[in-house]
Amino acid sequence: MSPALPLAPSAIDCAPVLRERGQREVFCGLTGIIWLHRKVQDAFFLVVGSRTCAHLLQSAAGVMVFAEPRFGTAIIEERDLAGMADCNEELDRVVDRLLARRPDIRLLFLVGSCPSEVIKLDLSRAAQRLSVKHAPSVKILNYSGSGIETTFTEGEDACLASLVPELPAAAADAAPALMIVGALPDVVEDQFLRLFAELGIKGVRSFPARKAADLPPVGLTTRFLLAQPFLGETARSLEDRGAVRIDAMFPFGAEGTTRWLHAAAQEFGIDEMHFRRVIAPGRERAKRAIEHSRSRLEGKTIFFMPDSQLEVPLARFLNNELGMIPVEVGTPYLHRRHLAQDLASLPADTVISEGQDVDKQLDRVRAARPDITVCGLGLANPLEAEGLTTKWAIELVFSPVHGFDQAGDLAELFARPLRRRDMLRV
Amino acid sequence: MQLTVWTYEGPPHVGAMRIATAMEGVHYVLHAPQGDTYADLLFTMIERRNKRPPVTYTTFQARDLGKDTAELFQSAARDAFARYQPQAMLVGASCTAELIQDDPAGLAEAMGLPIPVVALELPSYQRKENWGAAETFYQLVRALADKNAKPAPREGRRARVNLLGPTALGFRHRDDIIEITRLLDSMGIDVHLVAPLGASPVDIARIGEADFNILLYPEIADTTVRWLEKTFGQKTVRTIPIGHGATRDFVNEVAALADVDPAAALDHSNMPWWSRSVDSTYLTGKRVFIFGDASHAVAAARVARDELGFEVVGLGCYNREFARDVRDAAKLYDIEPLITEDYLEVEDAIAALQPELVLGTQMERHIAKRLRIPCAVISAPVHVQDFPARYSPQMGFEGANVLFDTWVHPLVMGLEEHLLTMFRDDFEFSDAAGASHLGHGGTPHTAAAAPPADEHALHPVAEPEVIAARGWTDEAHTELMKIPFFVRGKARRNTERYATDHGLPVITLDTLYDAKAHYAR
Fold first, then answer.
1. Helix (H), strand (E) at residue A198
2. Rounded to an integer, what distance in angstroms lies between the CA atom of residue A353 and that of residue A340?
């Protein structure tokens, strides 16, 4: 079969979507700091917020990260709320102290939160002011990770979008260059870079880069591939600078990864035979690896609660490549254009839901009794206690799951809870 | 503005959640932005609760702010009432909702729900989690208690007490309650009510029927018992039964109030003999640093000195509301109390004091791990590991046994300490192996094993071995390295202090042994 399937645009536009308003059981965008601070190794993320923000980062991260973090919270206190001038002075003092103690920091993000947004603390002005003060050793940017504006992975989108204006301009006569957009674990990023090199696409750059100073150039000759489905703002900002998005399926599983790579190969005029030859070993490994989980997953039903916006491409992978049946695919926000190819490959009767009323959605979970429910940490144990098998959504964000050589791991993440359920005799 | 990396306490509405989640038949409607629902995972993951916390969040977003967030609150409250049918409702705001001033109290009152609705005013930018829990419990009891309740005549019945303070996410509250209930039963005393843990609003209404109150966790229930003293004239037992001696004091205090004989209940712990037996000799004078919530820290200090023979070299708490108790206790040990919510300050204190054991919270466990000092957890905030499957109380006589085991276990055992000294020059012996009974002995303790730069970058903590060379002659430093790792830090510190005190610019072999003689116990 040819790895590149023709698009079916009609199916994208008419897919039924259930939209709900009610309690949303999702993290806010601050949570993205937990993986972003690991990715960009000389960046520090300073949340300007409340004790709640600090507690969220600690609670979301505390379960998983033990090393000294490159993030912190400037906690707004009663006296800061009394007058705004005071608040800015206080922020300057906190930043001075932080940078004095962390001379290794090259890039500081001031991250807005719900309280800083509500009191209209102007962090972009603060970032400009502090950038002048700490230039040239430290660059200071700002973005909002507040819950009133972002859910979970939208924090990464906002962070990367804030970096786009900082990207150097590509020369107008530069050769077309490929940019991979979205934070990937280093090991996955390196695999992709090796594959592109073998394909003959030269000078591929990653955004974000591991070092703050390594920002890739952007311009009219830039072609970019989204590695993550939640980067709407970032894509728009890149397009504003002339870059062109390569439409592709997201790189999950053997097929998703093949089609993602193929979209780039086509764009760069890579010979079809050469493409097949280069990707064949990885594609075959991925197929073999996911085969281990097929017997456990095939024909099983799956329900996605909204969490990371990875839900649609993951449902596509589990359905197309492992024969699972998606009952409902919930997502906090549905970016139809970027997800067009994944949406087109879902079964026509899949319920896609956007937004959330968690109580009503849990009623639907209980009614459907899916074989596996993908949900946040607050819901997993309560559902397990009701006899429903769950998969923590957050693991899908923190684990390396993209690309050929993680396809087996990705399938295993879903197979393991089912295997465990069958193993236990307690 | 305060720069924070890790915090000891969450915001006050999380304290309110700890009360609501502990109870039955209560629902908390929290005006809060999208994202604040993260707090659910504290209960479902860390404590492994099998139900969602009874909390409905309005999860408003930016687009709601221009419109009617008040209406959003009312519809959330209406839906929550219809779905969960609680006996009582708590309403309040998280930090962001506090800023938009929608007045959940007034909104809820206007709805005229047919159940008691308790409005919480928890100032997020001034107060913290424990205060929020205490205030919530107090407001609930004040609103729900039947003011006409009084104890039945005492003739012909056992005394009845309230056990007050245990909550969700408390450090071993579940097991403490079982242990204390059992202890009281052995004295012929019945528990009338445990609250908030497991209590419903209907139960709370009858709080005045108990003969007296037992305040197990002052951080949570002190405000409430003061009100109960005033309102119902109930007396309060304030001794916290953590440790053998404190449990005996507790039994005597309870017996006096209940007018029963304490004798039968007084001695059921292995701890005194375990501590007096000869293997425990090596515990003598071990330098211990204690930090936690005030009540647990103060109780731990007494156990450490009086019941294990440790030397308390540091004592502190993160909750300023109870700082006075810690200051008073610190006087008993002739040390400066450390009252702070900045874990970096705690880390500095531990690094400077080089204790042989740290008793602290989850935070101190991280600090001690980095400084390679043995540690046991004695107080919230806690981690999933601190909710063991097994019965593991801190209170009562069984609690005293648990304290002995969990505090002594991280130390190198008595006989093993001697064996390590005896064999330390053996070519097959390696310091780096650590103590055999500690599974994580693989961590090398040598200067070569520099930690990843990232770990120490925010707040560089001097590695003993790394800076040892400063001012030391090679010969003296070589000798220092012959000292077993678990006392090397103390030897280094003592020698350097001795050198500073005596104005010696260079530490020689003689300085090392002069200092040893000077500080000999």
1. helix A186-199
2. 16
The contacts of residue A425 (CB under 8 Å, 6+ apart) are none
Specify the pTM: 0.89
Distance from CA of B385 to the nearest CA of A (A): 11
Q: Are B247 and B261 in contact (CB under 8 A)?
A: no
Domain boundaries, chain A: 9-24+292-423, 29-150, 177-275
Residue B271 neighbours by CB distance under 10 Å: 23
Exposed/middle/buried for residue B389 (C-beta within 10 Å: 0-12, 13-18, 19+): exposed
> Per-residue pLDDT tens for B91-129?
999 999 999 989 999 999 999 999 999 999 999 999 999
**Is A104 within 8 Å of B50 when comparing Cβ atoms?**
no
**Cβ pair B38:A59 closer than 8 A:** yes
Question: What is the three-class DSSP state of B60?
Answer: strand
B415 vs B428: CA distance, rounded Å: 19
The answer to whether the bond into A208 is cis (omega within 30° of 0) is: yes
Determine which of A108, A148, A149, A375 to mutate to test the interface with B (most B C-beta atoms within 10 Å): A148
What residues in B contact A23, CB-CB < 8 Å? 37, 56-59, 76
Comparing CB atoms, the residue among B2, B36, B383 nearest residue A52 is B36
CA B183 vs. chain centroid, Å, equals 22
User: Helix (H, G, I), strand (E, B), or coil: what is residue B57?
Assistant: strand
Question: What letter does residue B170 receive in the DSSP assignment?
Answer: -
Q: Which residues of B are catalytic?
A: 279
Residue A90 in this model has a pLDDT that exceeds 80: yes
Is the CB of A378 less than 8 angstroms away from the CB of B37?
Answer: yes
Regions of chain B short of the pLDDT cut 70: 412-469, 521
Residue A251's pLDDT is what? 98
| Chain center to CA of A288 | 26
Q: What is the 8-class DSSP label of residue B322? A: G
Rg for chain B, CA atoms, rounded = 26
Q: 3.20.20.30, 3.40.50.1980, 3.40.190.290, 1.10.340.30: which CATH number matches B12-143?
A: 3.40.50.1980
pLDDT of A158 above 50: yes
Q: Strand, helix or coil at B427? A: coil
Q: What are φ and ψ of residue B485, in 5° steps?
A: -55, -35
CATH architecture designation of domain B271-411? 3-Layer(aba) Sandwich (3.40)
Q: Is A250 a residue whose pLDDT tops 70?
A: yes
